[in-house]
Specification:
The protein is an alpha/beta fold and 597 residues long. The protein is built from 19 helices and 17 strands. It holds the Pfam family PhaC_N.
Length: 597
């Protein structure tokens, strides 16, 4: 199945999720960056957050082997190589003569400066670069390499071409040259200082964010609540309702282990937690502990049993016999394991309805048509397990570095230009500060996630055991509301649709016009927001999109509020205090575990 973004069709059957990531930034007016370059930088980076990707490292041997495929192509097809070299030289003659029509993609922000077209030298340099890149790609495509070899060769060629882009040089980037003159050389001096700091403090990669303005519990993660339960693996936060009445059935959230929970509570105007509080829902959110090497043995079974503890606490505090649950990204993977465990034990009655945000349970589909998928081989999986087993954890910083090299223009070279060539500080933006506040994965949980890629147990009953129980998702009977994002590169929207299909034709699927995190952090008020919503009755996602009806303008949050309200039981007076006699408040939200680094 193709994993590309859905395309536009004729006017009579229009379904038009956008072809590029949304540039929405829910910020206060005074917080906008002062220059356009950083404005665009934030918009791009907001759709490239780490989340659950990647769990498999691209090894040096894999890159060397991929580069070897380029040499293999030259050896096997010297005549084709010569022909493409001749084509490049012919284009160079046209460029020198001013007769070339080669031009960058209008969406390529690297070459948006008018000087790339108005200055004859820069225009010729850019055209030479683009012509060489195009001819190399055409040569690789024309060879007789196997499809996987060809794709890996293209990846290495793209890495090389991205690094050699003339926009990355201080001598040929027109914006950098102008700023050098305008600041009397100070921009270059600042850039050199920042480069030195990043070599020492960020292992040589340019910093993506200035996190200093953001303080957890002070100006982000400020929703009012209490820690009502704590064990060695998680804290359970209960958030105070803002309505006079609350629904009888509480909602328990399972956030990703790979990130800290407060992506859904960045600021009051875009806090999903506060939206839920305002919806009359009694909300409990798990805050996972940031593990260290001593916790290397924590695995998927342990995390699933943590969900059972959280559910039991929420039931005891509220007096409800059951709960609704929410799983985001890898937190949804844990939720599925928990639901399968409950079903196997005959305790499925504990959970009535579920919400799933940007979560793919058909694990291999999350890698389809992705760069990382090119390198997800049995050998790579074994090597990834061995690496985290030696260290005891998989570092969030290591994951972030690998993810950056999967998308170097967005996550490396953009910041290279901003930080070093222009001498700007990295942008100060809450989503990027959250993304930079990485966590670690215990070695066992990392290994369990990698096994899911190989076994795909949620689609293949009996291939996964959780705490001694065999998991069969066909036995799980819950209401389901599933959200995907049109430009999500991490959990593709088609894969998220597969999650909805696991729960039957009555499951509701919602497709939001955004990327991975932005499809979740999607408060009402943005006039560019829209979504589709319909039962997941079609066999494949493209057919579902065709039959989903008219697109709905605005955020999907009000749509979910109505859905969850219909499934949350009676309306009762809101509790005057959080917790209970058995589970008294331990400390205010956001708690203590979220502070651990």
């Amino acid at each position: 199945m193709s994993r590309s973004t859905p395309t536009s069709q004729t006017a009579t059957t229009t379904k038009r999720p956008p072809a590029t990531g949304r540039k929405r930034r829910a910020r206060k007016d005074g917080d906008l960056p002062e220059n356009t370059y950083q404005h665009e930088l934030i918009g791009t980076a907001s759709n490239q957050t780490l989340a659950g990707n990647p769990l498999v490292s691209v090894r040096a041997a894999d890159l060397a082997g991929s580069a070897g495929y380029l040499l293999k192509a030259l050896g096997k097809s010297p005549l084709k190589a010569g022909a493409h070299l001749g084509g490049y030289l012919k284009e160079l003659r046209a460029i020198v003569g001013g007769n070339s029509s080669v031009a960058p993609d209008p969406k390529d922000k690297r070459f948006a400066d008018p000087a790339w077209q108005s200055n004859a030298f820069l225009r010729a340099l850019l055209q030479s670069y683009l012509a060489g890149q195009s001819e190399l790609n055409r040569f690789i495509e024309s060879t007789n390499l196997a499809p996987l070899e060809k794709s890996r060769a293209q990846f290495v060629a793209a890495l090389l071409a991205d690094a050699l882009a003339p926009s990355n040089s201080p001598l040929t980037n027109p914006a950098a040259l102008r700023k050098l003159v305008d600041t009397g050389g100070m921009s270059l001096a600042r850039g050199i200082r920042q480069f030195g700091r990043d070599v020492l403090d960020n292992r040589g990669l340019p910093a993506q964010v200035d996190s200093t303005p953001f303080k957890v519990g002070e100006n982000i993660a400020t929703a009012k609540g209490e820690v009502v339960f704590r064990n060695e693996m998680f804290e359970l936060l209960q958030f105070a309702p803002t309505t006079e009445n609350v629904y009888a059935r509480p909602l328990v959230m399972s956030p990703p282990q790979i990130n800290k929970y407060y992506a859904i509570d960045l600021s009051p105007e875009k806090s999903l937690i506060q939206w839920i509080q305002d919806s009359g829902v009694n909300l409990f959110v798990i805050s996972w502990r940031n593990p260290t090497s001593e916790h290397r043995d924590w695995g998927l079974s342990d995390y699933a049993l943590c969900l059972d503890q959280a559910v039991n606490v929420a039931r005891r505090i509220t007096g409800s016999p059951d709960v609704n649950m929410w799983g985001s990204c890898s937190g949804g993977i844990t939720l599925a394991a928990y639901l399968g465990w409950l079903a196997a034990r005959g305790e499925g009655h504990k959970v009535a309805n579920t919400s799933w945000a940007v979560c793919v349970l058909d694990m291999p589909s999350a890698l389809d048509d992705t760069t990382l998928g090119l390198f997800t081989t049995p050998a790579a999986l074994r090597a990834a397990k061995a690496s985290s087993r030696r260290k005891g954890v998989l570092s969030g910083q290591d994951m972030a570095r690998m993810f950056a090299w999967m998308r170097p223009n967005d996550l490396i070279w953009n910041y290279w230009v901003n930080n070093y060539l222009l001498g700007n500080k990295p942008p100060a933006f809450d989503i990027l500060a959250w993304n930079n506040d990485t966590t670690r994965l215990p070695a066992q949980l990392h290994a369990d996630y990698l096994d899911l890629v190989q076994q795909n147990p949620y689609s293949n009953p009996g291939t996964l055991e959780i705490a001694g129980e065999s998991i069969d998702m066909t036995r799980v009977k819950v209401g389901a509301y599933v959200v995907g994002g049109t430009t999500d590169h991490i959990t593709p929207w088609q894969g998220c649709y597969g999650t909805a299909r696991l729960f039957g034709d009555d499951a509701t699927y919602v497709l939001s016009n955004a990327g991975h995190l932005q499809s979740l952090v999607n408060p009402p008020g943005n006039p560019k927001s829209f979504y589709y919503a319909a039962p997941a009755a079609a066999e494949n996602p493209e057919t579902w999109l065709q039959n989903a009806g008219e697109r709905q303008q605005g955020s999907w949050w009000p749509h979910w509020r109505e859905w969850i309200g219909q499934r949350s039981g009676d309306s009762l007076p809101a509790p005057k205090k959080l917790g209970s006699r058995k589970y008294p408040p331990l400390c205010p939200a956001p708690g203590t575990y979220v502070m651990e680094r």
